[in-house]
Design brief:
Blueprint: H1 3-26, E1 32-35, H2 44-54, E2 59-62, H3 74-81, E3 88-92, H4 106-117, E4 123-127, H5 134-143
Parallel strand pairs: 1-2, 3-4
Helix pairs in contact: 1-2, 2-3
Length: 144
């Protein structure tokens, strides 16, 4: 099977499964969301096709700032995931003396989400660093 055929098949199978989940979740007033966590979930073009295939207001993305391989443009990928965002995950790794995240340009990320896409929903925070305690890292992420 060629790569486009594999992709089309995966989207079709995934759309069937996610449609069932969305239908089940609707009974409980629950949305179904996909966070970018590697593989197909980190490929916005595939996610967009999946969102279109499921075609439900209860199905969306959870763009996570930190869940991309080093070699990709995380800002471009977040931008492409935002049209379907139900929530956003702001992951932090470390902070400089001024309280800015050292690996991710948070001001740019927030501009993409809020200014670029009019996002006004929840932004979850995570701290995945090792220099601060989990509690202090979460506080620093919140303050940022």
């Amino acid at each position: 099977m060629t790569e486009p055929a594999k992709t089309t098949s995966m989207i079709r199978r995934s759309a069937e499964t996610f449609s069932e989940l969305v239908e089940h979740g609707a009974d409980e007033d629950i949305n179904v969301i996909i966070e970018n966590h590697g593989g197909p979930s980190s490929q916005p073009e595939m996610l967009a096709r999946l969102m279109e295939s499921v075609d439900s207001p209860r199905f969306g993305t959870l763009p996570g700032f930190g869940n991309f391989p080093q070699q990709v443009d995380r800002y471009d990928r977040i931008d492409k995931m935002m049209p379907h965002a139900k929530a956003v995950s702001a992951k932090c790794y470390d902070f400089d003396a001024e309280g800015n995240e050292t690996k991710i340009d948070f001001e740019r990320m927030i501009q993409i989400c809020v200014d670029g896409h009019g996002y006004d929903g929840w932004i979850g925070i995570e701290y995945e660093g090792s220099r601060l305690s989990e509690h202090d890292g979460i506080r620093a992420a919140r303050d940022l």
